[in-house]
Amino acid sequence: MSQQRILVVDDEDNARRAIATILNEEGYEVAEAANGAEALVRIGEFSPAVVLTDVRMPQMDGLTLLKTAREQGSDATFVMMTAFASVETAVEAMKSGADNFLLKPLDADQVLVTLGKVLEKRSLRQEAEALRDQVRSRVRRFHDIIGESPQLQGIYDVIRRAAGTRATVLILGESGTGKELIAQALHQESPRKDKPFIRVHCAALSENLLESELFGHEKGSFTGALARKEGRFELADGGTLFLDEIGEISPAVQVKLLRVLQQREFERVGGTQSLKVDVRIVAATHRDLVAEVKAGRFREDLYYRLNVVSVTLPPLRDRKSDIPALVNHFLEKYSDAYGKQVRGLAPGTLQALLSHDWPGNIRELENAIERAVVLAQAQELTTDDLPPVLRGPRPHGTSTGALIPGATLALIEREAILRTLEMVQGSTSRAAEVLGISVRKIQYRLKEYSTPDGAPLKAVPDEAEDFAAES
């Protein structure tokens, strides 16, 4: 067995030494601490993979040790040891980041099995983090755009080819698909990258304000114009002007914008002097401009001036292969922003994210992950942390939490198995994966349980048949 470092923390000397002896005999590298304060020092010196700690200790209890170690940046896996009467405390510890807990008096075989599981899970988590690092290194090479789907690869190619020209680019796509990021990438890929990138949200301004924002105004040109103001065209001279939601501008502004595109000159509001600027125009809209032209709401000549090069961003539902990379990006972003140690997804969480159609696209996904990180009580996001619309149907009946304390372990196991089977639509293989037990054990338990009318519970048909064949 390869050496794995285990720190055993318990104020009872005999119990602590007995556990250490067992682990040493199994090939683990073991250190000991008699209390939480001593354990913090040992964590810094010994860098254990797993901290096996008692919950109730003088000076500093196991729960405080866990929280303090996390605050100090330790990534050690915690397994709590507790008497059955303290199960609620152990559950609280797991919410704070512990991976598992053991009931006292300890069974040596159970200790070894639990350690094997948490070390395997830790190894998988580290491998997943390494893969995430690889994903980050790939997807971030193209500026801040996250994703490697074939649709995005085609867009990247268009951006690279168009960036070196001054051609106007029209970016189309639903709200929340990342049109501004495409505009910024186009600017950064161009020879203008050291010049200004100026953004105007056309839908947020009235006609008069938008005209003033775009072209500037002279002193006294309207009430409140107390001084000359340079417009966004002047500010973007030599660089890129991004006109977001171009489909919302009024006919009067459309006329003036057309003139700028055709002649590369304009006048400030209330002015007479023609100004010339060198500006690359990038426009974006969620509207169907062809339909707007047919309806007479958008000038056809302006549409063709804007649509020299067009890019259509696919909605997130059409590129779900990019969701894992986006989730990793937002997890890291908001974990750092809120000072939390959320670095992964619990079983079933990614499936819930992939099953949603994301009508709000990347903006909705980002909002969902930010919310989940804020509410998360462990190092992995669960479906309970997600917005209700992503969770699917909830199990009915008695709350599992209401069973502890006071319930038998058999009743708790029964509730866990039945609730998990309900969550995975009766699949014993998926339930076994979630619960960390064998398929055979679930199938045997189902034969023991019965429905209210006395009929035995069964797995889904194909798995039930497999079980029958094995028997």
- Report Rg: 30 Å
Number of helices: 20
Indicate the percent of residues in helices.
Answer: 40-55%
Oligomer: single chain
Relevant CATH superfamily of the largest domain = P-loop containing nucleotide triphosphate hydrolases
Total number of domains: 4
Describe the structure in your own words.
With 471 residues, the protein is α/β, with parallel strands linked by helices. It has four domains: 5-136, Response regulator (Rossmann fold), CATH 3.40.50; 150-314, Rossmann fold; 318-390, Helicase, Ruva Protein, domain 3, CATH 1.10.8; 409-449, Homeodomain-like (Arc Repressor Mutant, subunit A). Helix content is 47%, strand content 13%. It is built from 20 helices and 16 strands. The chain has helices at residues 13-25, 36-46, 62-71, 87-95, 108-139, 150-163, 179-189, 207-215, 232-235, 251-263, 289-294, 300-306, 323-337, 349-355, 361-375, 388-391, 409-423, 428-435, 439-448, 461-470; strands at 5-9, 29-33, 50-54, 77-83, 100-104, 169-172, 197-201, 216-217, 229-230, 240-244, 265-266, 275-276, 280-285, 309-312, 344-345, 380-381. The protein has a five-stranded parallel beta sheet with strand order 2-1-3-4-5, sandwiched between helices. Strand 3 (50-54), helix 3 (62-71) and strand 4 (77-83) form a beta-alpha-beta unit. Helix 6 (150-163) crosses helix 7. The longest helix has 32 residues, at 108-139. The two termini are 34 Å apart. This is Response regulator of zinc sigma-54-dependent two-component system. It is found in: Cytoplasm. The modification 4-aspartylphosphate is found at residue 54. Residues 5-119 form the Response regulatory domain. One of its GO terms (molecular function) is ATP binding.
